[in-house]
């Protein structure tokens, strides 16, 4: 059954009844669905939530919310386990202190949303082919989650923490931080879990202009298997050495080396570790200068 038919099957009376239950909180029971179960889950597929799209203090276990219209969704202090959001629309999602366990997001749209207010947690969840355009994080915590072929472009995860997670596919202009970028954020959003990127794998990923800052620990991160990548410790010290060496290079290598240091140094003061995509450097720096830059960074320190 396609998305249109799933939505058209809902009567006005059933929409009102289900919306009221979701807003009131409590456990969502099978009796709430006019369609019973679909593949062993409570069938709420295609549910068009009327405004205000707000769900609070609800418990959803084994629920199918595929093809639902839940924008702009405000979800607060909810417990969700084994819930499907396949091809659901969660644009403008405001995620407030929720816990997601073994949930699946397939082709889900999070456009303009923010994950992690009040420290929401995601355990063993899968995100596949999801759209995160203009979306981001606050201080979400992800444990054992998998991100596969998602549209992760221009996403700032802010103070989100990742452990035992897997990223596959292309990440472009994505920012991982060890904590908040500004002191005032902790007072505004609460104390985040330190992001150690523990056992995070990029083995099946491509990293294009991916940034790491604010004491983001990359010790146990697995680099992409395809392409040419470097993982460096003592990042600021390596850049300072590169700066000294580049000052003695002939033109145009000297200018190229100084440019590289200039654009990478600002966050190095609070970032011990860095991952460098050598192909990224080659796109912006002349080939001969690129080889000299990488040669300098590779030296023991």
Defining key terms:
elongated; alpha/beta; seven-stranded parallel β-sheet; single chain; six-stranded parallel β-sheet
What is the topological layout?
Blueprint: H1 3-8, H2 12-24, E1 26-27, E2 37-38, E3 41-43, E4 54-56, E5 58-61, E6 63-64, E7 74-76, E8 79-81, E9 94-96, E10 99-101, E11 104-106, E12 114-117, E13 121-123, E14 126-128, E15 136-137, E16 141-143, E17 146-148, E18 152-153, E19 161-163, E20 166-172, E21 175-177, H3 183-189, E22 201-208, E23 211-213, E24 229-232, H4 235-246, H5 253-264, E25 274-277, H6 278-284, H7 287-298
Parallel strand pairs: 1-5, 3-6, 4-7, 5-8, 7-9, 8-10, 9-12, 10-13, 11-14, 12-15, 13-16, 14-17, 16-19, 17-20, 18-20, 20-22, 21-23
Antiparallel strand pairs: 2-3, 24-25
Helix pairs in contact: 4-5, 5-7
Q: Describe it for me?
A:
This protein has 301 residues and is an alpha/beta fold. Helices cover 23% and strands 28% of the residues. The protein contains seven helices and 25 strands. The strands form six sheets. Strands 1-5-8-10-13-16-19 form a seven-stranded parallel sheet, covered by helices on one side. Strands 11, 14, 17, 18, 20 and 22 form a six-stranded parallel sheet that branches. The protein is elongated and about 75 Å long.
